[in-house]
Amino acid sequence: METDLDDNQKYIDVLQVLKESSPYDFTEYSSRSINRRIDKIIEDNELSIEQIIYRLKTNKEFVEYLVDAITVNTTELFRDPEMWKNYIKELDAIKFKPEINIWHAGCSTGQEVYSNMIVLAELGLLKKTNIYASDISKTAISIAKKGEYTYNFNFEKYYNNFKNIFPTEEEDIFYNYFSIDKKSDILKVDKKFVDKVNFFNHDLVKGKLPIDKKFDIIFCRNVLIYFNNELQDNIVNRFYKRLNANGRLILGAHELLSGFFKTKFIEKRLIYEKNNAFHFRY
Fold first, then answer.
1. At residue 170, does pLDDT exceed 70?
2. CA angle, 111 as apex, 261 and 24 as ends, to 5°?
3. Which residue of 4, 41, 234, 278 lies most exposed, with the fewest beta carbons within 10 A?
């Protein structure tokens, strides 16, 4: 009978082969979430650990499939309306800048990116804002670039989230930003928005950011929870260095900065303002 240690070694072996056979390195991800997702791959495909390892060594398409399965994130339009309300308040501090730079790190399939753009458009800030969005998953970026989503699935929730953020009795502005084809079950983001975003593949763990800019806002929601503590600290420090003075880092509802990093940011309802009084050096 195998021990828990034996079971855990199986997952370690899979991640090590993936690291050696591809550009992807998940060895510092949280073992709990990674192991659970590898188990699902085993169940869904009726594969053994040995078969997974063999395919990783011999099949590039399977590598991408496994990466997509490991990194899948839940996202939706205008998720967590209270966060967006707080975000709108925080925009007061930077709305007078001649140019605003925003990076969505780990943007998944793009719904959060487009939600942000709609908020910025409603506030008259979108034209002077540069939007960058990245994800490790090639499949997710491909979907994000299209800006097409299922209409019936969660549409009512998207709509109610939006009305919670912008509770107006005037003309229903929600529909200004989408084209809807109920017959084909498609909700499509306005092409002007899709074309404005600079989408690109990027690995937060080890990939060099191909943008020579500092940002006023960095979104990284519900991504850090998949990393171990040391990797979380490393990535937060990279974000700190990439933020302009008084820049904002926006995390997920279950992601909190702790310990030493509390001195680097001022927490404001899960939106973290860069603390410029603090200078960090390795």
1. no
2. 60
3. 4
Tokens representing residue 223 in the block: 């991504």
- Domain boundary at 71, 91, 115, which? 71
pLDDT grade for 32, boundaries at 50, 70 and 90: confident
> Which pLDDT score is estimated for 7?
67
Residue 21: domain span: 4-71
What is the SS3 assignment for the chain?
CCCHHHHHHHHHHHHHHHHHHCCCCCCCECHHHHHHHHHHHHHHHCCCHHHHHHHHHHCHHHHHHHHHHHHCCCCCCCCCHHHHHHHHHHHHHCCCCCCEEEEEECCCCCHHHHHHHHHHHHCCCHHHEEEEEEECCHHHHHHHHHCEEECCCCHHHHHHHHHHHCCCCCCCHHHHHEEEECCCCEEEECHHHHHHCEEEECCCCCCCCCCCCCEEEEEECCCHHHECHHHHHHHHHHHHHHEEEEEEEEECCCCCCCHHHHHCEEEECCEEEECCCCCCCC
Q: What is the spatial distance between Cα 279 and Cα 281, in angstroms, rounded to a whole number?
A: 7
10 and 100 part of one domain: no
Pairing of strands 265-268, 271-274: antiparallel
Q: Look up the CATH number of the domain holding residue 115.
A: 3.40.50.150
Find the helix packing angle between 31-45 and 4-21, rounded to 10°: 80
Number of domains composing the chain: 2
Name the band, by pLDDT with cuts 50, 70 and 90, for residue 10.
confident
Instruction: Round to whole Å and give the CA distance between 145 and 141.
Output: 6
Considering the domain architecture, whether residues 85 and 67 belong to the same structural domain is answered as: no
Is 105 a domain residue?
Answer: yes
Look over the chain and give the mean of its residue pLDDT values, rounded to a whole number: 88
- Joined tokens for residue 86: 């707080």
The Cα 243–Cα 238 span in angstroms is: 9
